[in-house]
Amino acid sequence: MFQFTVEHLGFLAKVPGLPQLFDALLLEVTALWRTPCLMAMNQIETHLRSLPEMRLRPHRLGGTEFVLAGHEIAHLHGNGLLDVRLNAPERNRWVHSRRAQPHHVLPKSSWVSLWIMGAADIPTALELLETAAWLRASGSAFETPLEPLAKASSHSERNTEQHRDDPAGSMEPYDERPPSPPSGVPATIQHPS
Q: CA 53, CA 70: separation in Å to the nearest integer?
């Protein structure tokens, strides 16, 4: 149902409040029939709330948005689909290792998707979110001119730019090594090696 709605009824996302209503229905279905998923989602959100630099807020397309330094790094839909923004090398590392999938709508972007099914997915989700937080805090993410999130001057500009496809395909050479930690990264956010 989710994929069909996204692919064929995505234009309805422009109707104010409709994405949030749809996501609330997804969350209700998850609560009724996928309790392990809901419990895992709650644990992930609880962990992220404990980080001093992290903020949680409603996402413009439904679900919970995770914000670091005023910028979205990820969002979690009511059905357990976690979408996380990385840079191209990290995106490729996660996708090539099959620990995450290309984004469910924008597969050539630097976003990845991870389905949360239960408690077994929590460590992977947290590692993925820590990677995104580390990239945002270090300034090593989103450096391509096609993803000017850090340079956006208004909230509406950020919302239109944050899911833009990368025409280059984000298929840079695959490198398993994590980047070196930069100076100035907050102590609570370290690269998950």
A: 10
